[in-house]
């Protein structure tokens, strides 16, 4: 019976405070919608990619490829061996193909932008020679001559190309000049997703362009009738492992992959799933931040509700309701809020996912429609309910302890000063421990120190949560006293209201504190990274111009040779990049191409010299430290073909972020990267001859690189700005994700002020009765809100700097040179907080100003 009565009380309480219900539900909706949107979006994309990968390698029993990305491929001798042993191994057909990177020009002569997706050229195999499904042409035909290509339809549409279009293709590392070609066919490739560019050549042309005649990229096998894919894979693996062992190479599995068609499909699914898992984790992390902020808002809301309903709850206790009844009544309200918020959040999450999918589809990524699975529904409702119940638990517990005698009081009663003293003491303990951890972590470098800083950050946040009420009174009182003077009595009243309930002020402000703390931490990291970029270029590079690839694309080595032809160019050097193995792990190797790296970079040699003999190895001090290498030591690398190549450390230089941390002599690089088409260059550094004007040299360089579709010429400032813009884009993305928590924080201020206006209705009525105008009432609420917002921003800024500065110092291990404090961001944040305070107070201020004096004074 009592339970039914309390249930009715809860429902009527919610129904009678609709605005309060809407605001509380909305704070839950924002967090849960992000969770649901992340789950729905990643599930939908995964389903779409899986449907595409299901069509990859269809009809292929076994596929053989090189194990490493930079390996030259599968030797032609292996292809010949397989053909000789077809009957013995159970092979029906062997199909070898060649492929490699290409750059396709659009109808205007510029490179078709892929947005990071692959741009690949490959052999076209006719149906009687291919293994697997036939290539389908939506228009035109297959290429038959060296100057003919077929292109996937999506890339053709993006580039404004059609059957009959004349265009250019830069192949591989650009060892061959750009090719003038004609588009003779458009294809529908299963892998045509995103900005993917697929270019088909006839077999002879592909072999010439992508191979030195000794290797092929892929070998596909068809099984004889009665031979399963697994049986063929095992037989081929055993046979080839024996062949490789007899040749004296390293372990077969380090050189080649032998997989069934099903394994190829599953591996591709797994690769995209790994990316989506990381992407989902990032989205959920920001959703968690929003939910954490929402937790404080919900806690604050229910705390105020319980305080305002002291008399009501005490009367219920007086007429027989037990403590459990009262507690359950409050939790029931929270449960209803959580369920409603979760369901609306789910609907909004579907809309968010639809928006993300619309954008990704515009970029060419696949979609099979929104996939709203059980996981999304459960996660949204579960998170909404759990977060709300946890947030309301302490207020519910507090409500159950209200004695019946409270029914005789006229005012609400907040927890006493004793509990505040305990909180402050605990805050001091956590704060001291946090400061110690932040200082110790900030004095070190590397992952261990960063972990200590992370622990210190957690302790500091806990300290602020516990200590904010004690801090709020002196801090808000201080800057409130400073800013109240222009507003006279109104300013003083606003300051008094802001400090009268420190717990409420702290809980409301902390929602903003957490979001702005992360903004400042991200800003400190981003500005420090940009400072390192500027410093590295200014101190480490002597070049006047830098030739780079658009969209971070690598350059062919032939660009270096072309740049050398510019009359005004003096020193022209690039670093050629490749991949090898050291101590069983993949590692990058580089080599100066075009001259000595010391000609274009400022390098401080610590030991040895910059002279790089054929078998020499130049390393940075951090590389020497991490690997334990010393001057004169022999370091042996393993190439993609399994050959071991010995080098000797001939020089150790001070870390320089503008150049690679290890460089080998050119002959050594050629041994490690035996296939010329796989050799690529990073930025080409160019110095001007004495007396040559910068504008003249720029024009010469642009003319020299005009035929290379991806090359762009930048001066030092442009080069720095291009890197900084990438950092800015990353920061903007993170700020956009953090906007969720900031919106929730603003709603929290609105909610608190709205409830506070209801709570102080009689007080406001009295002020109106003694002469305060509506404008003065509104101004009071505006100032009170501004004080709370600025207090939260100040806490967030201090906390963000306390965490961001030591965190940046730990990253010195990875090359971050120093801390750059984002003063402009901090200033903008504080001003923005004041603006946010005014915006958040608009509705509560109008509500307060409309209070009728007589009705408010006589209201119960």
TrEMBL record:
UniProt topology in membrane: Multi-pass membrane protein
Domain ABC3 transporter permease C-terminal: 285-404, 736-851
Transmembrane regions listed in the UniProt entry: 21-41, 278-302, 330-358, 370-394, 425-444, 450-483, 504-529, 734-758, 787-808, 820-843
InterPro entries, alphabetized: ABC3_permease_C, MacB_PCD, Macrolide_Exporter_MacB
Keyword Chloroplast in record: no
Any Pfam family: MacB_PCD
An example Gene Ontology molecular-function term: transmembrane transporter activity
MacB-like periplasmic core domain: residues covered: 22-237, 505-703
Keywords, ordered alphabetically: Cell membrane, Membrane, Transmembrane, Transmembrane helix
GO cellular component, one term: plasma membrane
Cellular location(s): Cell membrane
UniProt similarity note: Belongs to the ABC-4 integral membrane protein family.
Protein name, as recorded: Putative ABC transporter permease protein
Native source species: Gordonia sihwensis NBRC 108236
